[in-house]
Amino acid sequence: MPDADANVESILTGAGKPGKDPELTFSTEQEEAARAYARLSLDPHPPQNITKAEAATEQGKSYIALQKMYQANMSAAEKIQFDLIASRMPFPGSNQLVQEIKKADHAAKYFDMTASKQAKNGAMSLAEMMDFESGRRFRNPYWVIAMAAEASPEKLQREMVLMQAYSNELQLQNLRMMEKVGVALGQLLAAQTRAEMRPSIEAQLLRAQSTNAR
After folding, report:
1. Of 36, 67, 186, 213, which has the maximum CB count within 10 A?
2. pTM for this one?
3. Quick one: average pLDDT of 39-64?
4. CB distance 137 to 168 below 8 Å
């Protein structure tokens, strides 16, 4: 996974070799790469901790307060990306749910065509499940054929089903875009926090260290 900690795809579609297919269920290695990207993109050099002796001084207490304020803002920025990563990790019971869905022949065929390696091994994430639920309809030619082959279906009803599937697809794509926007907003919050607070934190750190050294 070359340069995975510096590639946004690590958090969106899974780390791996360049040109690989997107994956929405991450392996343990992909999870680690995604977390490394989050740390590097948000706060590669967090404020250092001070000693107990330094923390006991008035200057040290002021430093701790600033550090906590900084960490609170960074926590909000981190949550966006870490929640995104969590949505790409397998959830308990996903295998049973997949097996139930695959009872429909057209869904089983679409699963075989598109499922991630992790999903095919029996574990699927919420993100991939949502993608699959939309894709197995509108993006699945076998589903279109199955709908057309229904016994005496009304043409208008069939069209409504197809349009609803298309609507589901649009909503899913909107969700994917909002995920990317969320990542970008979190990075902006992190950058703003660093720009606004790090100078004060570093100055207070020097005061705390110099006070304790006397």
Report:
1. 186
2. 0.79
3. 92
4. yes
